[in-house]
Known about the structure:
Elements: H1 12-19, H2 23-40, H3 43-48, E1 56-60, E2 66-70, E3 77-81, E4 91-95, H4 97-105, H5 110-115, E5 120-123, H6 125-138, H7 142-149, H8 154-172
Parallel strand pairs: 1-4
Antiparallel strand pairs: 1-2, 2-3, 4-5
Helix pairs in contact: 2-7, 7-8
Amino acid sequence: MSETMPIPRLPPLAALLAGGVPFALVDHVLGRLTAGTARRHDALFARLGDKARAIFLIDPTDLPFAIMLRPDPSDLRVEALDRRRASGWDARIAGPLAALLGLVHGAYDGDALFFSRDLVVEGDTEAVLALRNAIDDAEIDLAEEVLALAGPLRRLAEPPFRRLLPLAERLSGVALTRITPERGWR
């Protein structure tokens, strides 16, 4: 984001390993995560208004794939795909995975990322702003959303998950959970 605080990049080995995961598995996990998030944060769609029908290409540049997202509640779709085959999107948001997750969790300011060129926005910028504002208002915490996927096993999964999360954040430099005034960042 700046010369004093660079955005972490996914190590090449991690990106290579991520490239070995079949798109069908990534689609399944993303689909469950997106559907659950949509159920728990249904006001997100109202905030998006007619921009919910836009097709967003979320492009984590340090991963070997991109994510196509249509946040329309009547036709919610999410798909992992080879970024070279990505077409038909209305808006593209590209940057390192850490920057994209940091935006969702409130660790980074979208305007600062854009002006520092850590984040690239193409296409319908009005749709991108609507999505950013909707996500900010919903205060989505992806760690909570992942835990919700555990269903009845959450009680067992949560204690070790909560102990490992701060360590993973410190080691990676990536905001893996929502930033709150009590918790802060770094």
